[in-house]
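Supplementary notes for students who missed Thursday's class. We covered one full example, reproduced here. Read the sequence, then the structure, then the short commentary at the end.
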Amino acid sequence: MNIDLSFSRSALVLPKEHSHLKIVIIGAGGTGSFAAQAIARLVYELKEHGKSVEMLIVDPDRVERGNIPRSNFCAAEIGKFKAQTLAERLALAWSLQVSYSNELFDSEKHLKQEEHTHRQLTVLVGCVDNHRARLDIHRALEGSEGYRSSEAANMWWIDGGNGKFSGQVLIGSTVRKFATADCIVGSTICRKLPAPSLVHPELLQDQESGITRRAEERVSCPDLVRLGEQSLNVNQRVAIEVTEMLSSFLLTGSLRRFASYFDLESGSSRSLYCTPEHIEKAVQLSKAPKSEPRKR
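Structure (token representation):
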């Protein structure tokens, strides 16, 4: 019987030393609306530990009747902007300053350079359901990278996506090709990881145009739930996985994985750990076609 000891051999993923943390939640729909609430609790806890943290929610859409109960909104909020609604609610609940933008994500606007940038760590939390939004996040991460591959990452990207019953959460800091050995320092500390778009290149490809229907027959995510084509709880599960990964990364310093996958129908889950073997295999397999891309 073979026993997988990858977790026990994995390195800790540690961010660079920073005096200010900026968490940007991109997308406030099915996954983002639940993730925002959990991330606000994390921000509160970080502040209790004396950390300087700001939180920004970005989404151009308004709450619709069909968003209830799949998203974290109620009937009284129908017609209001999602990002603004969540920001105001969380600010009241946790006595936090939560910023919002009722627009599409724009890296030049929403990642504006400030006086403490050289000591700032930025984490982009992608909760989007289309390849164009992920391309914008990918480019933002690319633009943040230093000239030297050895430089500590100023920006990280956590991406959550799901299919009918399954989902995945990935974290990474570079869109550049690199030697796997460069990721891990002294076999115990992981300072950078391949971006979600390197592990799953299909995230940047157009998969929204009628995978199961022609474009003119497409229906909304809430309707997919009613038709039995998407689990009612899959977005909440993705949000939980996103926040747990974020908490391990920023609060407890215990993160040892860069990808987690689950399937609600079978009740199974698995993770890829921060070992040279897992990282190298993940990037190599990304060159092969995927049988079941997960995007939402």
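Commentary. The radius of gyration is 19 Å. DSSP finds nine helices and eleven strands in the chain. If anything here is unclear, bring it to office hours.
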